[in-house]
């Protein structure tokens, strides 16, 4: 109840003192669509908040914007001083504070490239290498898990030979600790192997990317010939299906 009351107090405070704040994008003042803020908890999802009657309105924070060919996103809402005019293109939501310019730094997002025929064999080899390493990891860790379980079986059966309850309890604690320590070591090694396989895969894909770089011509001499990065996800890295 206290938290709800505090939220209402804060909400009322903002209603009383908030004023309109101009929105800007890429250095140009724009009229963005305002949206009613339904509750105090939603305030953090909005910017440029202003009061309309007894309600608050604001512009919902954008997660992504487009800048030419490259998709970009703001790393945070924190303003940073722009040290040189040549860096203006690296920022968004630019504001003048005093005699200096401030803005939110853009973070480039690598565009995923279509895999062209000249790189297909290279990518196929990278896939085989990655999944081969993962299969080895699974097989090795599974075998070690089975061995650890067998050792625990024998250990706990030996506990039954103890003649007092305390001796059985103490002996079983040793069985459990040995098993848990062993499983942790196995899982740690498994995770390191998984990460290593994925890091090697990313390096291999970068090499494959070079195979489909644009060919320089008289019309492209002044243009960047850096190819878009090949990124072929398989769900394992995000969903952690293999652990």
At a glance:
With 243 residues, the protein is of the alpha+beta class. The chain has 3 domains: 1-61, no CATH class; 63-109, no CATH class; 117-239.
Helix and strand content put the structural class at: alpha+beta
Low-confidence stretches: 13-31, 63-76, 218-224
Tell me what portion of residues adopts beta-strand conformation: 15-25%
Largest sheet: 5 strands, antiparallel
Q: Work out the radius of gyration.
A: 29 Å
Q: Report the total helices.
A: 4
| Mean pLDDT over all positions | 74
> Count the strands?
10
Quaternary structure of the protein: single chain
Note the gap between the termini: 42 Å
Order of helices and strands: HEEEEEEEEEEHHH
Number of domains: 3
What does this structure look like?
By secondary structure, the protein is of the alpha+beta class. It folds into 3 domains: 61 residues, no CATH class; 47 residues, no CATH class; 123 residues. It has 4 helices and 10 strands. Strands 6, 7, 8, 9 and 10 form a 5-stranded antiparallel beta sheet that branches. The chain has a 3-stranded antiparallel beta sheet with strand order 3-5-4, with helices on one face. The chain has a two-stranded antiparallel sheet with strand order 1-2. A hairpin with a 2-residue loop joins β1 and β2. α2 runs antiparallel to α3. The longest helix has 46 residues.
SSE blueprint:
Blueprint lengths: L1 H16 L5 E3 L2 E3 L4 E2 L9 E7 L2 E6 L4 E3 L2 E5 L5 E2 L9 E7 L2 E10 L7 H43 L5 H46 L25 H4 L4
Antiparallel strand pairs: 1-2, 3-5, 4-5, 6-7, 7-10, 8-10, 9-10
Helix pairs in contact: 2-3
